[in-house]
Amino acid sequence: MKLNPNFIMHTIDDETVIVPTAGAKFHGLVQGNKSVAAILECLERGADEKEIADELCRRFNGDRAIIEEDVADVIAQLRAIGAIDD
How far is CA 22 from the centre of its chain? Predict the structure, then answer.
């Protein structure tokens, strides 16, 4: 899984935005927190859902099941706008 090259990630302070380029079908901005930024960084490396959950468990103190659910939710939302290439 990778972040679609038609989407660019920008982090400013503690907020991350995903900006679509002219080649994207989605038109708008996606805002996220540090967790979303970590997910996007993993996607830029081509990580799968398990690897992303592993990384978030290393970075953040939280219940593994909740982290896995949150990762799945974010990935589903990114897929819905075409921001993920499988």
Answer: 20
